[in-house]
Amino acid sequence: MPPPYGTPPQRDSWFAPLSIDLFVKVLKTSFFHPFIAWIIPLCFRAQSMFWDAPPMLVSIAWAAFVSLCWIAGVINNRLAFGLPREVDLSEEVIVITGGASGLGLLIAEVYGMRGATVAVLDVEEMESGEARGVTYYKCDVSDKDQVARVAAEIERDLGTPTILINNAAIVIGKPLLSLTFPEIEKSLSTNLLSHFYTLKTFLPAIARSEVGGTIVTVSSVIGTVGAAQLTDYAAAKAGVSTLHRSLAAELRVSHPQIRTVLVTPGQLSTPMFYGVQTPNRFLAPVVEPVDVAKEVIAAIDNGRNASIGMPLYARWVAWYTVLPLGLQAVVRKLAGVDTAMRSFVGRRGLKKDATEKGSIAGF
User: Which residues cross the membrane (predicted)?
Assistant: First the structure.
């Protein structure tokens, strides 16, 4: 008997649109922004307040502190990521794996409309059909022979690739004891080994480019914290993150003109995790692909190295691993990370759900 797919019930409340990320964003553009911070003492001075008045001294001290924090942030990024490279989209050839839907499709369509040359590699047909400036290549990136064949076609049809975005992934969503060996092999091949195949295939061409290039790796916070029913996926994403960091270290020495961008999102609002419910939408909101796409595109456009984590907790999740084990267990229980997959339906379930709804509507 087929599983009773259907849209899982959604938890909702009056504060659903609010999240800690929204509050932090507002604070960063207001109270914690140097420009706004310096306006306060200037307003006091406009009211003829003396420079040695306590409110004036406090506001000046706060503005100076905020300014120093911003300067320290700029210095930190420069030390961590170095100087950016110049990017001319008319000269860039962008290869996106898993670009037929979700995050990959958004990035592909944006760059296609902006005049870049984009090649999408996916086993599925593109959801939006033909997109301007985007060429679709049917390719299973877990098969190194297919990757090599498509790479030759891209170089012949579009030119030498300069940007590689490794975005392809699958989620099986079963407990380890329920996974078959073919499912394990398929998951690890798609989520981890495909990165090695695409890098070994496309990186030599990117290294030959006179304008440099960019490698983008899409990982997940699950690679750091792990989760029940995601043993294969978590193991692969942990490997992907470590692969990216090791590769970035190699390229800084051998090919400093190549930039690297690591993307570590939380739960994305894409069909891949259809049905999964985030236990706490205030602290761990579901991330919209368009928000991640904006950050990735900004990093590529500016020609800089970057480490992108969304939502807010994704940028601090590494600190979870230094907590005492007992506290980690408490945090996991409160966060519900090990029960979130119980309502998992996935991409196939979404298609089945849509088919059933269409049949009912037709009936």
Answer: 22-44, 56-73
